[in-house]
Amino acid sequence: MPERVDKELEEFRSLMEVPSNFEDGFNWTSLLGAIFIALLMVPGAIYMGLLAGIGNIGAASQWVTVILFIEVAKRAHKNLKRSEIFVLFFMAAAAMGLPFSGLLWNQFFINSNAAIASGVAEGLPNWFAPHPDSPSYEMRTFFHRDWLPAIGLVIFGTFFGTLANTVLGYGLFRIVNDVEKLPFPMAPIGAQGVLALAEDADQESELNVEDRWRWRVFSIGGAIGLTFGAIYLLLPTLTGALTGAPIQILPIPFSDFTPVTGQYLRAVATGISWDLGNLIFGMVLPFFAMVGAFAGVVVTFILNPILFRFGVLHSWTQGDSTITTLYVNNIDFYFSFQIGIAFAIALAGFWQVYRSIRDIKRRKDNERALVRDPIGGTPSGRGDIKTWLIVATYFFVTFSYIIVSGFLINWHRGVMIVLFFLGFVYTPFISYVTARLEGMVGQVVEIPYIREALIIFSGYRGVACWFLPIPIANYGQMTVFYKQCELTGTKFTSIWKTQVVLFPIILISSIFFMNFIWGLAEVPSAVYPFADMIWEVQAANACIMFSSTLGDYSIFEEAFNANYLAVGTIFGCLLFFGFSSLGAPIMLTYGVVRGLGQTEPHSVIPQFIGALIGRYYFQKRLGLKWRQYIPVVSAGFACGMGLITTIGVGITFLSKAALPLPF
């Protein structure tokens, strides 16, 4: 029986081909780009995340940096190669990693109402955050000896996490790309923008005007981002900094309709996000993924009033806001139901991997290749490393995590068993399954709450176990990055040299600007409306799980319901395998599951509208070219938004850091 081909995935697979030669993209120009990001973009990313919850400024910073360096190179009569541009992109993204961003959350969480009320706060270890009596909270500074244990643990986790992700992700890429020849349908999306800028950088190119479309399309997206960003972000940022009363034409982070619609749609969160990025994001992603997500949201609109009527969602009351509605629904039903749905996703992912491996074994030539060379041949000049180094890195990193965690937890027997299982059984298993799914359909799989379940059953009492550097990771997601690296003709050694240079830059810039922003005002506070609105609810949700190991009756016992978990698992499995038997696009199935997870409709609805516009207007007019255009438009939009927000944040910092005159 011939294998069924998903037409939508085939559109993505055909966007790019692997070049015949590879070039080294690392040079001192790249290093200057990283320093530029660390000094100018990192504080903007931190500030906008607290202000509006915007996390994509990191992507925007990549475009701003690369465009700036291309323009500088032009004036120096130098052309940047595709590999150099890709490394600049990578450095810009890595510099935005912000390893110390968790410290802002830690200082809030240990003093939060949720942590104190649930009994979690009193058990938090000093390597999570200092005791609330520490003078560092009054001084609002991380540069205090009480924060040294927490800072040391962050440095440890950043180093070993980067090492493992870089090397072990590469090893998985070798398996699924070189041996199993998987297509990686979503990888070309991230590489298209690099080609757009490479065309513009190559002034001596003989391409005609018709072929040089990427830069024109990128510029259109950039103009849209600049215009919208000025209204959505720049105006409230500047007015808040200069007058103390921010003016918001479009509400941030969203308009909440739940208190009004609650009388018609019981226990349903409603509202709309005015971020134009959602509309463009809906055009970029596969159409059926957006259709599925919207369908899932519609199902929750129907399901929640029914669950409310039958007393399942019993904690919701008329007038509750979106945030309160999502939290109480989570306690009553969705916490357990989502675990079940996630189990169904994992089972479906395992089934896809099993079926794919079975198909490969049926092809005798591939079977012989697997026996002859378990890692596979590599293209000449790509910059590959020996297999033994990958294996040695895996054991070194895993044992380092286990030793440090064991020391912090006083070598608790149950926890040590969990550490060995997660490090040597679960992590390699789930990483390989994810690598295959990324290669086949661009999806990630996780077994939900495996870490949490094992910690609960370990027998440990207290909350310190939740903050250990546990050796659990999913390195399969890194395979897409290496595929993009290959598609742009960049040597892998460029990436490894870049990581060595970046590490100290990332640490220094992150801790410095986290400390600076905390010193400007309390975090969260009215100065940062997104954090002020969301963080307390996030803390309450986090305490559900953390309280499970305290030994007494906890919020976790109230939220966990085995019957609801079973319902979610059965429903999810029926959904996956039912859609599969009907021949439905695989992205539709994943989208429905996403919508059923009580996803906020505030973002899903504009994303669905964007998908409709892209599918039934632009794609009808432009055909397959639309799939090439829209990722570049999205990249330009991110660049425009990043540029305008960086200007606003810079002015804000200047106004708040200036000392008032004494006369």
- The level of helicity is 55-70%
Main beta-sheet strand count, sense and barrel state: 2 strands, antiparallel
> Could you give the distance between the termini?
86 Å
**What structural category do the secondary elements indicate?**
mainly alpha
Strand order of the largest sheet: 1-2
Task: Identify low-pLDDT runs.
Answer: 1-5, 204-211, 366-374, 659-663
How many helices? Answer: 26
Order of helices and strands: HHHHHHHHHHEHEHHHHHHHHHHHHHHH
The number of distinct structural domains comes to: 1
Mean of pLDDT? 79
Strand content: under 5%
Number of strands: 2
Q: What is Rg? A: 25 Å
Structural shape: globular
Question: How would you describe what is shown here?
Answer:
With 663 residues, the chain is mostly helical. Helix content is 69%, strand content 1%. It has one domain. It contains 26 helices and two strands. A two-stranded antiparallel ribbon has the order 1-2. The chain is globular.
